[in-house]
């Protein structure tokens, strides 16, 4: 297997995270950087990648390899190995992709759906690499792990993964054509299966819609925040359940029920991942936060960033934080014009604006505005860790969203 790959030597020239523009490309870079404490060799690897010292890259099941030019005339043979998935894991992964038509459509459009990765991880299939899985190798005499040549290869391949998420599938053992063929086989088989009778009961959203259409007149719901209910009995010893935890869940359920009575059906459509972020955003405390992080398989900083996104924008804010999309170009052009006008009144120095998908970034000012599917602009600030963090509630006016986070001393 040797897919036709973009030239990795076109890697960006600035910033340690500039090698990946997408969240899945950044996940690859993060796995590399968390696999070692040798920041010096990582830094030299980034320099080698920027200087175009990584040659033609070949992807095969479980490895990516290339010749990397070092200080000697003859290039070194560098490679990075990644465990391939078992047949059982592939069955699970392909079933996960096939379960939602939008997953395959996104992959063919060059996007890696975050929900696909989450669902696969919860089923025990690691599509994105873990820091412990990357295994670099090189013919150079350097004892570093990774050496600067293998590190350069890792950084360079991130741009390829950005452009084609199917490269991750190839590294895990199966290339684009084989994956698509097996998905077609699954779709054909599912069409030949007689649909079984629907199980007893209907989804909660449908049940609520049916009730709401013939809802009787009800008194105003009681504010659950002012009423606490104690458990009638103590959980059995050894059950692993704490009274305070169950009472908190009861209060959360009561709050959601009260919102349903008022017509807010948002919570009916949340995934497990989204609901975990929602609960964390309600401020249950550090112990609950760390349990939610552990049970969802995420990283604490990433989960904290998503929690802040929920606080500023609910489920839409969470979608904006996780999934870039391609909006109407006219909307981005109009926003760029409005921001340029606003900036002339806010500063005398020119402020370059970079546009990518639904994001407008104020270069060198650490400010970014993201256009959500609700046509509102969500302001972000770049923190010391290099990541973009939600910084304020969204606004329909991009200039107003910018004003909410603008720091004149920046840049």
In short, what is this structure?
This protein has three domains: 8-190, no CATH class; 241-323, no CATH class; 329-405, no CATH class. It is 47% helix and 10% strand.
What does it look like?
This protein is an alpha+beta fold and 411 residues long. It folds into three domains: 183 residues, no CATH class; 83 residues, no CATH class; 77 residues, no CATH class. It is 47% helix and 10% strand. It has 15 helices and nine strands. Strand 5 and strand 6 form a beta hairpin. Helix 1 runs antiparallel to helix 6.
Secondary-structure element string: HHEEEHHHEHHHHHHHHHEEEEEH
Number of strands: 9
Large-scale geometry: globular
Query: What's the average pLDDT?
Result: 81
Low-confidence stretches: 1-16
Strand content: 5-15%
Mind summarizing the main beta sheet?
Answer: 5 strands, antiparallel
What is the domain tally? 3
Percent helix, as a range, is 40-55%
Spatial extent as radius of gyration = 25 Å
Features:
4-stranded antiparallel sheet, single chain, alpha+beta, disordered N terminus, 5-stranded antiparallel sheet, 3 domains, 9 strands, globular, 411 residues
Outline the fold blueprint.
Elements: H1 23-34, H2 39-50, E1 58-60, E2 63-68, E3 76-81, H3 87-99, H4 101-108, H5 114-122, E4 135-138, H6 148-163, H7 166-171, H8 176-192, H9 204-213, H10 243-261, H11 272-281, H12 286-296, H13 300-322, H14 329-346, E5 353-356, E6 359-362, E7 367-371, E8 377-382, E9 388-390, H15 398-405
Antiparallel strand pairs: 1-2, 2-3, 3-4, 5-6, 6-7, 7-8, 8-9
């Amino acid at each position: 297997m040797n897919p036709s790959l973009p030239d990795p030597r076109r890697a960006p020239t600035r910033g340690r995270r500039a090698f990946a523009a997408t969240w899945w490309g950044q996940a690859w870079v993060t796995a590399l950087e968390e696999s070692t404490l040798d920041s010096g060799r990582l830094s030299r690897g980034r320099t080698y990648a920027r200087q175009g010292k990584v040659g033609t890259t070949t992807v095969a099941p479980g490895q990516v390899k290339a010749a990397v030019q070092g200080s000697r005339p003859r290039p070194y043979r560098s490679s990075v190995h990644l465990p391939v998935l078992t047949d059982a894991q592939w069955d699970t992964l392909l079933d996960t992709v096939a379960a939602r038509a939008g997953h395959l459509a996104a992959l063919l459009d060059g996007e890696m759906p975050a929900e696909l990765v989450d669902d696969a991880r919860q089923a025990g299939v690691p599509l994105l690499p873990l820091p412990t899985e990357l295994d670099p190798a090189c013919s150079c005499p350097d004892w570093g792990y990774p050496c600067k040549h293998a590190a350069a290869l890792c950084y360079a391949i991130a741009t390829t993964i950005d452009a084609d998420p199917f490269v991750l599938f190839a590294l895990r053992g199966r290339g684009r054509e084989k994956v698509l063929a097996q998905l077609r086989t699954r779709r054909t088989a599912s069409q030949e299966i007689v649909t079984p009778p629907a199980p007893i009961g209907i989804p909660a959203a449908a049940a609520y819609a049916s009730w709401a259409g013939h809802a009787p007149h009800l008194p105003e719901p009681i504010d659950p925040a002012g009423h606490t209910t104690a458990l009638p009995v103590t959980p059995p010893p050894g059950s692993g359940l704490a009274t305070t935890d169950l009472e908190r869940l009861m209060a959360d359920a009561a709050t959601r029920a009260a919102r349903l009575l008022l017509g807010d059906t948002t919570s009916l459509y949340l995934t497990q991942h989204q609901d975990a972020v929602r609960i964390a955003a309600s401020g249950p405390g550090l112990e609950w936060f760390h349990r939610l992080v552990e049970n969802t398989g995420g990283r604490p900083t990433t989960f904290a960033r998503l929690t802040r996104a929920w606080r500023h924008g609910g489920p839409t804010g969470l979608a904006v934080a996780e999934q870039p999309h391609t909006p109407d170009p006219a909307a981005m052009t109009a926003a760029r014009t409005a921001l340029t006008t606003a900036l002339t009144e806010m500063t005398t120095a020119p402020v370059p604006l970079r546009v990518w998908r639904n994001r407008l970034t104020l270069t060198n000012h650490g400010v970014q505005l993201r256009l959500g599917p609700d046509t509102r602009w969500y302001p972000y600030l770049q923190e010391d860790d290099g990541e973009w963090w939600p910084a304020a509630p969204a606004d329909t006016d991009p200039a107003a969203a910018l004003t909410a986070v603008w720091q004149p001393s920046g840049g």
